Protein: ABC transporter ATP-binding protein
Amino acid sequence: METILQLKNISQQFGERKILNHIEFDINKGEIFGLLGPSGAGKTTLVKMMTGTLVPTAGEVFMNGEKLPSLQQMSQYGFMAQSDALYQELTASENLDFFGSLYKMSKTYRKQRIQEVMEMVDLSEHLHQTVETYSGGMKRRLSLAAALIHEPELIILDEPTVGIDPVLRQSIWEELKRLKDRGVTIVVTTHVMDEAEKCDRLALLREGEVIALDTPEQLKETVGVSSIEDVFLHYGGGVR
Ligand SMILES: Nc1ncnc2c1ncn2[C@@H]1O[C@H](COP(=O)(O)OP(=O)(O)OP(=O)(O)O)[C@@H](O)[C@H]1O
Structure:
């Protein structure tokens, strides 16, 4: 199996405080990889290192065999942060056009992709509306569209469905599955159990350590329980 991301013995500390300890795993091309853990476990810190925006105190991250941070590799992924980085006073179309220009996409290609990604997230009818008139859920979906504008081979989503109702959450997951079917690799952080179940593989993170990593089915089978929540409890930690 081909790997897209390799985390080699990653540790991170801020001052004296150790946030992540000796994290080591690979992410395969075309999989949906979940990072599940309670608030403060280090999920956001870890995904920042996967994108090269934060350099680990120790260890190395490689994307497509190239050590991060790398400008070349940084144009290959899309990142959706926890809070939406959208310009409120601009329309959805203007926002996406701006993000597209950051990736140096041509005007014609931007125009085409804006139509495509807005369709994907079911916002085509609201293309020319300013973002300030959007609901919270619409903003999240527009952020997802922005992360996808340049057709990245890897997308990293930090709690993409926080504050989103179950129906929309479902539609975002359907979109993620469609992307996966097209060969896109997806890394997603969550603390929602039913989302964790939808991942191909899952790393359980607690206090800066990976306490287990496998497919959801295998994690449950190994421990002999029927839910991921119980797997977490088995390893000595709740999820909230
Ligand atoms: N720049 C920083 N300086 C100092 N401490 C930090 C910094 N960034 C994160 N931390 C600490 O690192 C720990 C892990 O934070 P992180 O945001 O990675 O957790 P998380 O699992 O993503 O949590 P959440 O689900 O709440 O976002 C927290 O205790 C946080 O306070």
